[in-house]
Amino acid sequence: MNTHAIRAIYAFEMARTRRTLLQSVVSPVLATSLYFVVFGAAIGSRIAEIDGVSYGAFIVPGLVMLTLLTQSVQNASFGIYFPRFIGTIYELLSAPVTATEIVIGYVGAAATKSVVLALLIMVTAAFFVPLQIAHPFAMLGFLVLTAITFSLLGFVIGVWADNFEKLQLVPLLVITPLTFLGGTFYSIDVLPPVWRAISLANPVVYLVNGFRWSFYGKADVSVWLCLAITFGFMLACLAVIWWIFRTGYRLKS
Amino acid sequence: MEAAIEISGLSKVYASGHKALDGIDLEIRRGEIFALLGPNGAGKTTLIGIVCGLIRKSAGTVKVFGHDNVTSALQARKLVGLVPQELATDAFETVFDTVSFSRGLFGKPPAPAFVEKVLSDLSLADKRKSKIMTLSGGMKRRVMIAKALSHEPTVLFLDEPTAGVDVELRRDMWNVVRRLKAEGVTIILTTHYIDEAEEMADRVGIIDKGKLVLVEEKRDLMQKLGKKRLTLELAAPLAALPDELARFDLQLSADGSELVYSYDTRGERTGITALLSSLAAAGVRFRDLRTAESSLEEIFVSLTGRQQ
Description:
The structure holds two protein chains of two kinds.
Chain A: H1 3-19, H2 21-42, H3 55-86, H4 89-94, H5 99-128, H6 136-160, H7 164-184, H8 193-199, H9 203-216, H10 223-247
Helix pairs in contact in A: 1-5, 2-3, 2-5, 3-5, 3-6, 3-7, 3-9, 5-6, 6-9, 6-10, 7-9, 9-10
Chain B: E1 5-13, E2 19-28, E3 33-37, H1 44-52, E4 59-64, E5 67-68, H2 73-78, E6 80-83, H3 95-105, H4 112-121, H5 137-149, E7 155-159, H6 167-182, E8 186-190, H7 194-200, E9 203-208, E10 211-217, H8 218-225, E11 227-234, E12 250-252, E13 258-264, H9 272-282, E14 286-293, H10 296-304
Parallel strand pairs in B: 3-8, 3-9, 6-7, 7-8
Antiparallel strand pairs in B: 1-2, 1-4, 4-5, 9-10, 11-13, 11-14, 12-13
């Protein structure tokens, strides 16, 4: 194992975050906090409790998930796309590093960043809404697992994209709508049966519900199913990455 | 002794159908400076790209100190440093950080003192804390060389290292190359400046349309293929070439003060004796004479049939 290389990639990526603290940390935390102010403190008190949880607190896990998913994808995709864009990827391709080491470096850094962000958002949320965490270890487990899974997805997108627009395509057009429709702001049990059934095809429903279970001990679907689907998605991303390195797709001519 | 690089039967056909390399066999000796010459699009960069792992080969094998560059890629790559032709650097990182990053990437433990030395060898010491984006093109080129040297490679590839750089950088670079050679590093370079190959290289390879046209010791090559020129400084300028001398391959300089005679050193007769006696017969007297071998450039043009 080339640990010096993993450390170099990881440190390089983390340094990028430090340089862009305002954009990569302050802005997502602020944007998410606005939801707590509006839905928690301002209009949350006029909305009925869901499963005995105040509305402001109910939406926290979903909003944390929204940031976790989009930030993981954005961080990881940018991390590998930028060297391709400016041409410095030659160094990575000519270095004695394995695919595993490259992925640990880039995906590890992206996941670290989004986990730190998620924790910051939870701390901020606690100022506005009555937050409680029933299963803290399960919560951390879901957080880390989801961050890694979506950073892997981000890595795939960063290799696939051949312009900056494609880089934004998935977070904006796929992840954000799926998260809003994935039970972030409501329990899917309040939907008419048809829409509830359709919602079950949305993978984000399982991510949000598994995560919410770790907070309030309640979920619309089985927690084990949530865990299985997250794992399944992670394996799928790993398989695509394995294929990318085996064929040199978009990396080697 | 085992070769530094052993290439056999190497071919590359791109997805577009373009055949960039066609059955290349080449052995680079340990510790030599090998210059690879060839017109644009001849396959030089593809060849380097395959050895360094940037491009997938279509057929053949590449070994670096006996390690196959595909089946033992990690062992092979550890030994190889690459300075590509295209200027590609990070933008926001500092010079010191980016060079240290390269060292880590190649599996070497941090060594700030060594990195400092590499930077000062390339006159980058005072830029160590500068962001790369603030540097000039020539300075960025130095940074790329520093990155390649940061992990102490045994084999160094320089792809057009002096294309578009100023005189000072060229001089610095060749000093670094000479020092590396003295330390036993094997260096493979491609260049457009044939005088550079002529000055630096131990051996020269010429590649054209994906095939190696020739690989020779530079000295042998220049002797074997070289034409020589005999220049005579005349005692008194000539207005025109006397008729008696018409049968010789002679050129009169514009001001009529010099006569240049070209001859082939490989020929059985150089024709010099006949020329000199004809000159005496025609009453043409000369003050001085000198000979010069033809340059690699001329050899190159005669082999590939075109200007580089």
